[in-house]
Structure formats: C-alpha cells, structure tokens
C-alpha cells in the first residue's frame, strides 16, 4: 500500500495527497505534517519507511469538504486519490494485491465547484495569462487574460498593454492564476506576482504553443473554426489555451460546461488600478473583509448569482455611455413601479443558483438537488417572463431580459417536476429521489424491498419468541450485512441449545454475540438485489434528466444571466427608494457637478446610530473655476470622506446605479485614480513616502483629460519644504499637463495662494467651530481656505496627557513667532510659478569681467618673483576697478 502511495505522490509533488482508505482520506509523510498543522488534527504514525516512523493523519470522507475548504483557503492544492477497481478484481490477481487507486481530481482554489467550498456571493475566477511581443522592450508586450469561472461557466477574454496588467488582474480578483513559465520567470514581473494574494501556478512553455491553444478551444466547444466566436488576438488565444489545459489536468478528463468565450474590448470598463481599488474599498476593506466595503453597503440582491454580478459590475464600471443610460432607465422604471419590483424580488429570492447547479451536472458531480435547482430556477424564470410580458412601457434592458427569460423550455421544467420527489437526498447514490408514480418499474422494485423488510421484522419477532430473548434484534452494517444480535448469555445458550442448528455464529463482542441464519441470508439477498436494482434504475433516470438539461445548457446559462441582471437592477432600485438616491445624468462631456453628495458607506454606518450625514456639493466642471479643487481643513474635519465620496459617486453612476446625492451631472470618466493614505511596504523595502511617490507617479503619468483624480496629503511623508515642493509641482502638473478633474486635500496652506494664479484651481475648506477652547467639526465644505489645522485639539480628543498638550502648545507658539519674525522666510508669491513646466529662460550675454581677463593673461610657470608680485598688484587693481 505504501509503495502505491509513494508512486502516486511522486506524480503529484505539488499537491497534498488525499489517499482514500475505507471511510478516511489518509495523508502520510510531509503531507501529514502540513495537514495536521493547517487543520489542527492529530498527527500519528503508521509503519516505517527507511527505518523511520511514517507520520500519518486522516480526515473522514463524510466531512472531507470541510477540511478541503480550509486547505484551499490557505492556498494549498489537493490531489484526491480514490479506488478505481473493485476489490474482488484485485483479489483475483493474488491475496496480497492492492486495490488500484488513481488521482480522480485535483482540487485547487480556482477550480472548485462544490457549494460547501464556494462563497455563493463571490465569483471563483481562474485567471490565465498569455502574452505576445510587439517590440523589443518590456513595455512592448501585449498580455492576454482569460477569466474563467468553472463553477458558473463564464469565460471572458481581454487584451491589455503591459502598463495595465496589474490593474486588470486586480479587477478580476482571481482565486488562482496560471501562466507560462516564461512569464512567471520574467524579472520585470516578479514584484507583481509577490503582491498578488492569489496562488500563481506556472505551466511548461512547450505545452502552450499557439497551435495547441487553438486546438484546445475548438475541442472544448466542438467547432472546427473560432470565427463564430469573434476575432481574438494571439495573446488571448494563448491565455485561453492555458486555462483549458489547466482545467483538463485538474478535472482528470471531466469537461465543464462553459459559455463560448466573449471578448471584452479595450477601454470597455473604467480603469482602476489596484492601489485605488484598495484605497476606495470597493469590494473589500483594507483588512480584506467584505463588511464595511462599498459592495456591502449597496448590496440588496436576493440571489447568489445577483450578488456575484453586482460585485462584477462594481469591479468594472462601464465606459459605454449608451449601456450606462440603459441601466439607469431600468433602475428608474423599477423605482417607480414598487408593486412590480417587490413581486420580482419575491420570485428571485426563491430562485436557486442555476449556473452553479448546471456546472456541477456538466462535470458529473451533480446530485438530485442540482436537478431540483434547475427545475425551481427555470420555473421562477417562467413566472418572471410572464410578469414582464404583461407590462407596458418597459425600458429596453428590462424588455430584453424578459425575452431571455422566456427562452425556458417548459417541457424540461414539467419533466423535472414530474420525475423528482419532494424530499431529495444530497447524492444520487443515496437513492429515493424519483417521485412515486414516475416509473412503474422503480415502484415495483421499491415495493419488493419494502415487503422484504416487513418479512425481516416478522422474522425478528419469531426468533425473539423462540429464544425467549425480548432484546434480540436483527441489524445491519456494511461489514456483516444483516445479522442477529443477542446478549452474550443468550448467545452462549443458542450455541448449546435448540437454536445451534439454526443460528450460525458470526462475531463475539464484549457484551453481545452476533449470528446469522440461512433464512436471514436468503432475505438479505432479496433485499440487496431489490435495492441495487432500484438504485440502478434511479441512476438511469438521473442520467437521462441530466442529459436533457445539458442539451439546453446554453439557453439555461442565458436564463441564469438574465435572472442575475434583473436582481441587480431591482437591488439598485430598492436601495434608491430606501436611501433617497437619485438618478445621475451621465454624458460625454467633462463636467462633474454633484449637489448634496454623501458617502454611501459612512452614511449607512451613521444610520445605525441615528446620526445625520452632512451632505456637500462638489463642482469640478471647470466652468469659471474649479476643475481642480484644493481642499484644506482640520484633521478629522472630513477631507478624506469628501474626496472618497465623490470618487464613489462616479463609480456608482457608471455601474448603472443611482447615487447618494440630491443631483449629479457627470461627464464620463475613463480612469479613476486615488492616493489616499499609505503604509510602509517592508517586504519590498519601501517606506511610506516611497509608496506614496510610486502611486503619485502612476497618476501623473497616466491621467487623461477625462480622468478623475483624488489626492490626499501629497508630500506629508518627508520634510516640510520637500513635501511642499512636491505637492506644489504635482498641482501644477495636474493643472497644465493632465488637465483632469481632481480633488487635492492638503495641510500645506501655502498652496492655497495658487488659486490666484491657476485658472482652473478652486479653494475649499471644512468648517469648524470653537467653543470654550474645544473644536467642533461641522463637516461642511465651503469656499475658502483653512487658517490652521487644529492639530492640538485633535490630539486632546485622542487622549494625549494634558501635560503633553500644554507643552506642545507652548512649543507651537514659539515656532510660530520665530517663523513670523524670520526676515528671509520665503512666501509662495516669491517662488517661480510653472518653473518645471515652462521652457528655460534664454541666457543673457556675459558681462565684461576684468579680473578674469587679467588672470587669463598670467602664465605662473614663466613668472619671476618680482613679476609675480607685479601681477598680484594688477589683480588687486582689476578687482577694485
């Protein structure tokens, strides 16, 4: 057995090997040590290898999913090894033959399908990366991305330049990444792979040739050409081939049901880099939790598929103006039609997860409950299609969803309803899932089994009477089958008394004895045969129903997508009604005018305590002034909240949702950048300031006229004048070069004077009020500049000792006095504006320099002492002249 284990493990060195032995999956050697630590289970030993004890631990097969989920969450890959041979066949080869076992599946983070291992509200994306070269430099690579969710069948392809690779990966939030060894070994990308939280698996370059990739795609979808799917680049095909190769390996021959690959055009979604996603906490907070994120605050979906689609929309807001406006129209209609909206949501709440049920059936891992999920989900779709068809004046998006929902084959729903029982087991091997009356043959076989059990009950009563043992029981287990169990004293009597010819001894326990009889053996044969036959008949019904459903896989997948889209639209509408959010106006201009804007996450948190949120306006339209707004104010005054809320309003508008504002008129945003807060990156040896500068550099190098930028406290991580200089230069660059819409918060009050010189820069500040030495933050943004930062008042609120506050106050007064009294203190008016952006001034003609002329005439090596003294007098005269 250990020889077999070692052989199988040698072929799967990068996985923990779950080796099936009876009712347990066993792990040995280093795998056992890793699993015992990760799972908190006991590490034991069994046998010896090379003279040393073999470490061993195990998990019950019945509970293996729970242990698998924990290992997968920790980034491990697991090879599941099961028996692939009947033990009776193994015995024919000899008494010491080991039952053949093989790896039947590799379980990895990106390829799991079981409900118990998946987060129902999160897509489980396997991301494959390919690339092609367009030039000689690193920046001359084009990367192809294949985002595949095996649990739902979604399959999307895209192509991005090297500069956008990191942000595109962040948008997909992959659970696992696969790529070629060449890409993985590229030194220019080493840092990227370290930063990504998902495991990265390299594949041999030789297996990823373009011709092989194209063959795999054709084989997966059973086509002879890819022209029907659209035009794909070489990098995209390489990525798709890598994804399919990895699935072939992990699924060991099982072929998932995938939707045909769809191509995402360049610029179809709002570009948001990884740093901005983290800063704005779109789908996860900085601590990695969903709770407290924008997604958590706006999610009112009632289905798992709707929750996944909402997260997908939030990760990739649209830049297609027409599609955005269609989504807004659908949400607007649903806000006005309250009765219909509530009806839709009630039906959607009853709809199971069609996509994941279909995927499990396609992989051969489905059970009766997955067929029931198709039945109930398709039935809900029929109901919604009928509801939508009866309504007039539907916006285009809702009308299109109604047409997709109507694709459901009513015959399939009726067939599933007729075939499946009300109470269904989890596994098909448990049997009993075919409804009584559906198959006469199954019903007859079941009756035979039930009658036999009645005979066993009668036999138990007769044996009890004959032995005089009222506690005699006929029981069953997998090892002995049916057996008669009596107390040990009664058993001894049976062996010696009248029953010794009837009862055949099987087993002696501590306090009981077990027997069988010829009569009981005959009954067991009848029962076993009936049960096995019924199970085979039910299994045939299951296969037929699965085949019927999979034949309509494309239509069912389309229905699943339509259900999710309707759920998301209804979620937006429900949230808008609940929170009084308004429909934004989005056009192709460059405006950005928000009145009564609020931070959606902070407002939701304040509602729990009953506190109001102070709404604020923001105009970055650039009409008159104000394409860039410089925000000053005290710490804790609300500057960061104000910056973030306007960025989030833009995101919400472009996913097709209503926004937390009295009104909003926004020009389409192509890229969103945020530099809010920073932390040391000790793993890469980068300080807070270095992280800040790297993120700021990305903004200044990439922001366009149509971008939206929010910058908070640029330059605070270094010395005062260094920081002021950097912040000043960044403001100039944003104003003159990027010409984008921007919010710039700062404590460098000297920068506010730039509002007089930069035509599109406007000053704003957060209002505060002082009362008896205490400061009250009003959180209201008003035109103007802050007179100070109120740092001491914030320190007092934070609980610094009174002695420290008093001493700091005295030091501050002295510093301010010395600063005022210093005659050479530079003012911003004295500093050259746009020095870095304008051409260098023309050099003036040099003035006549008599001293230099006299020096040029002197040859020190040819002078006598007297001549040298005379030269010195001439130099003095030239200087004075």
- Please state roughly what percent of the residues sit in beta strands, choosing from under 5%, 5-15%, 15-25%, 25-35%, 35-45% or over 45%: 15-25%
Query: What strand line-up does the widest sheet have?
Result: 13-23-24-25-21-26-27
Counting DSSP H or I runs of 4 or more residues, the number of helices is: 30
Spans where pLDDT lies below 50 across 5 or more residues:
678-685, 832-845
Global morphology: elongated
Number of strands: 27
Query: Portion of residues in helices?
Result: 40-55%
Largest sheet: 7 strands, mixed
Q: What is the alpha-carbon Rg in Å?
A: 37 Å
Offer a concise description of the structure.
The protein is of the alpha/beta class. A 7-stranded mixed β-sheet has the order 13-23-24-25-21-26-27, with helices on both faces. A 6-stranded mixed β-sheet has the order 3-4-2-1-5-6, with helices on both faces.
Describe this structure in words.
The protein is α/β, with parallel strands linked by helices. It is 45% helix and 18% strand. The strands form 5 sheets. Strands 13-23-24-25-21-26-27 form a 7-stranded mixed sheet, with helices on both faces. Strand 8 and strand 9 (154-161) form a beta hairpin. The longest helix has 33 residues, at 518-550. Mean pLDDT is 86; it is low at 678-685 and 832-845.
Q: Layout of SSEs?
A:
Elements: H1 2-10, E1 16-21, E2 24-28, H2 29-39, E3 44-49, E4 52-60, H3 64-73, E5 78-83, H4 87-92, E6 101-107, E7 126-133, E8 141-149, E9 154-161, H5 165-172, E10 176-180, H6 181-184, H7 190-195, E11 200-203, H8 210-221, H9 234-251, E12 262-264, E13 271-272, H10 274-280, H11 294-298, H12 304-315, H13 321-336, H14 338-349, H15 354-362, H16 368-389, H17 396-405, H18 410-419, H19 440-467, E14 473-477, E15 481-487, H20 488-496, E16 504-508, E17 512-516, H21 518-550, H22 553-579, E18 585-587, E19 592-597, H23 600-609, E20 616-619, E21 628-632, H24 639-654, E22 663-667, E23 671-676, H25 688-702, E24 708-712, H26 720-738, E25 741-745, E26 761-771, E27 774-783, H27 791-798, H28 802-821, H29 850-857, H30 865-880
Parallel strand pairs: 1-5, 7-10, 9-12, 10-11, 13-23, 18-22, 21-25, 21-26, 23-24, 24-25
Antiparallel strand pairs: 1-2, 2-4, 3-4, 5-6, 7-8, 8-9, 14-15, 15-17, 16-17, 19-20, 19-22, 26-27
